[in-house]
Each structure stands twice: as structure tokens, then as C-alpha cells.
Amino acid sequence: METAEDLDRVLDEAADVVPGHGVSAVELVSPTGAALVVAQVGGGIVLAWVDAFGHSMHSVGSAAAQGTVVFGYSDQHTEVPAGFVVPAGIGRAAALEFVVAGAPFVPGLVLEPD
Description:
single chain
């Protein structure tokens, strides 16, 4: 995967609903061993990042968000707080930055340690 179009195609394919799991998450892996899980839920995206040293973090969205969101990851039903959801534009920009630079750091994205 090298372009924004490649990333969009992969994310769009993963957005299909899987019965019992919601949408499927995509795991992107860099040559350093870092990984970024991208799950499109509703109108936003949940990100889970593990850096090359094994430190894991998740995206932080609105503190006012309530409930949980569901997606499929590694053939598992995964449920996280709705407060992990960030706007789709920020989530996609972070995923593209990860593909290009190996880390998802973009303006507007907040990551919190797990």
C-alpha cells in the first residue's frame, strides 16, 4: 500500500458489515514492527496503535460520547467505548501518515496509553 487511494480502497472493503462482528478492522504493519488497527464505525474511526517498542495506545474522541462501538478484529467481536471514535477525516489522515511515516501522528489526533 503506497497511496491514499490504496488505503481508501482497503478501508472501504473492510467497511462491509460482518454478521456478529460489525465492520472489520484493518491492521497496518510497518517495517519497524509497529502496527495500526483502523476500524470504521458509524461516521468515525477507532485507532489502536502499537509502536515498535510494544507500547499500545488508542484514539481519543469526544468525552461526551456514550455507549460502545463494535467491530471485528482478528476474527473476534471487539467492543470499545464510543469515546475512542475520532472523526473519519482525522482517522484516515492518521492511517495514511502511518503508511508513509510509520507513526499515525497528525494534527487533531489524541492518543492515550492503554
